[in-house]
Amino acid sequence: MNWDVIETLEFDKIKKILRTFTSSPLGVELSEQLQPVTDASRIEDELGLTSELMTYYHSGGSLELSECAPIKHSLEKCRIEGTVIGIQELLQIQRDIKVGKRIKEKFEEAPSHLGRLRKLAKGIPSLAGIDKAIADSISPEGELYDSASPQLRQIRNRLKLLQRRLRTTLEKILHSPGSRRWLQEPIITQRHGRYVIPLKAEFKGAIPGIIQDRSTSGSSIFIEPLATVELNNEITELQIEERREVLKILTRLTGLVRQQEEALVQLEDILAHFDLLNAKTLFSLRVDAQPPKFSDGNLLELHEARHPLLDKRLWDRIVEAELADEVRHQQQDVVPISLRLTMQNNTLVITGPNTGGKTVTLKTVGLLSLMAHAGMPIPAKDTTLPVFQAIYADIGDQQNLIQNLSTFSSHLLRIREMMNGLKLPSLVLIDEIGAGTDPSEGAALGMALLDYFHHQGSLNLVTTHHNALKTFAFLKPGMSNGCMEFDEKTLKPTYRLIQGVPGRSNAFRIAEGLGLPAKILREAEGFLGEEEFKVEEFIRRMEEELKGLEQERRELKEAKRNASEEAQGRLEKLNEAIATYEEIIAQQKREWKGLMKRMKEEADHLIQSLKGKASEEELRRLVQQRLSRLTRELTPMPPKQPPYPIRVKRGKEEDSPLKRGERVHIASLNQVGVMEEDWHKGMRSSLVTVAVRGKKLKILRQALELFSEEEKKGREPAVRQAYSFKKKGRVAPELNLIGCSVEEALSRTDKFLDDALLAKLTTVRVIHGVGSGKLRRAISKLLEEQPYVTDFRSGLPEEGGLGVTIVTLDV
């Protein structure tokens, strides 16, 4: 990649803004080194990592990297034998290790759609040994623990003892009779590492001792009493021993770091990479950027692309990056651009009024291409780019004053450099091609250059004011025109790029808007010439026609989007309805399975009670008799028989209106439901909302059957149960489970609820006691699964409090 375009296309400014999103010096350093690359696999891997991190952020995740800092300087010191790493350096190594450990744990169980991040985090080395060694020796505040070594503990214990003895001796002197007269202050201080007391200078002989220092004014002297000299000497020796032991400990820790130098370098590289990825992610989320796709061919396609330096959402970061003065003149409402270049149509000539956005369009395409090649998502939708081997740009007046080159000469020199170093696939951006010289000669030169780059196969975007170049692009196969839209009502540019039609400078309209006399304008139009005037008029009509087509395209796109959203909504409702159907069917299966289980249990119980009391033939007869009685007690409702006759609507009657509250039959479920809303044929959707067994379903109108008017006045539907029981005997309204195991209690509660339901009890009490709450929770879970339990709650104080559950049944 040719790096001379970095400044021209303002990628250096993007890097400075990206730097403000980093969390640590590691990320700052890596962001400053960021450059576009031409290796497709590297680009896609970097974009894939950033895309996954954006997904991670969208799901509520985040990365904390602020504790990271460079440690490579410390590691370089380790290589020199005898060099010792300082305490603060060791603590920074430990902080980096801890950050790496947190990131590794965060992503080691990440789902498959975060596979790249998981792989990157997996490369973080395990350095638990160094982490523990530092943590065992150094406090977070940077102090060596006494326990860092047995010798250090012994030395410090001895030091504390001697320091206490010395202080006791000095305090006796301070509080001796007459001390107030000769003491400057009643304090103990240190001079040159020795404990002393301050005396007034005129009383220097009041205490026998050694003068260690004098005050600046000379009014005080600092005396080390003779009584403490020996103690001070011992303390000094111990302090020397302490420093030696500290050096030994740091040497040992430095040795551990030296052994893991390679792993620590790897750790720092990965942490820096994560910080840069995090900065790219935060930048992208701020401007709604998306990862582009890369084509194998020569396809460049941008939809609603925005120049990031024009995006007001980045203004605070622009200020932080100290770019406000350079960027302020560019700040405006961003108007997105869309364009498409292919191998077959690889050259676009853009025309239009001055300050209409032509140069910004070139810079937008170039800058976003550089960002994508640096592994950054870009502020554009559905973007496809080639993997460019080079990007060339001749934009703005960058004449070389040292070489005394004119605008035209410097312009040609840059184009010559492009021609000499052209690599494919490449992007060529030329602003005002053929400008800076005689218009006719400049136009001719522009045509020749356009033709050269066009046939070389690069993707070319150029701007011009030369009408001859518009005609050339119109007639040349594989070239096309584009224009920057101009609003003739407001006489201002809209900054929209319209591809497929040449633009006009609109000089006369702009001059008219600025108040130039009409007479001057008429004369100017006369000088223009009839043929050129016709061309301008033809272009104007083409613009209007293209605007109309563009408006139709936008309306069709909007209609398509709305239709897609409606279809998606219907699909979601259908899936919801299917899930509810399946839940109802599964619930019915569970209920029947429970009934069959109880029948089997009762039969087994009967067999056990009769064993040894009857012959095999008698036993078989009794079991058969008992099963027959159970079968009679279980009176099934006919599976296809509705609660009252149904008149099925067919043909045109399927469009009959339905009213909220009206009962309908759903044949596929053999269920009766209640309409939750009005419905008539003119409504947009054929899905209606029906309440079935306490659940709201979305069902097609054609699937509903209506009841006859006569039957609506008769019996009430009763399809809440698909079966009924005939039960003899009285059922108590409460069940005492105190003393039961959880398994036994659940079995008894299940049977009790069935009996209560058959006895048509609407409210029952389950007594389970307070205890650990395990039994109460198990009972609550069982009640939640019962379709005929409409409500349950803990008892009031007078009902038994938390030791009782009150259950309401739907009978």
Commentary on this structure:
This protein is of the alpha+beta class and 811 residues long. The chain folds into six domains: 5-127 and 260-287, MutS, DNA mismatch repair protein, Chain A, domain 3 (Orthogonal Bundle); 148-256, MutS, DNA mismatch repair protein, Chain A, domain 3; 304-528, Rossmann fold, CATH 3.40.50; 576-636; 646-723, Roll (SH3 type barrels), CATH 2.30.30; 727-809, Ribosomal Protein S8, Chain: A, domain 1 (2-Layer Sandwich). A hairpin with a 4-residue loop joins β13 (479-487) and β14 (492-499).
How would you summarize what this structure contains?
This protein has 811 residues and is of the alpha+beta class.
Question: Termini distance?
Answer: 79 Å
Identify the quaternary structure here: single chain
Q: What is the CATH third-level topology name of the largest domain?
A: Rossmann fold
Name the CATH architecture of the largest domain.
3-Layer(aba) Sandwich
Give me the count of strands: 26
Q: Please identify the structural class as seen in this structure.
A: alpha+beta
* Major β-sheet annotation: 6 strands, mixed
Q: Give the overall pLDDT as a whole number.
A: 81
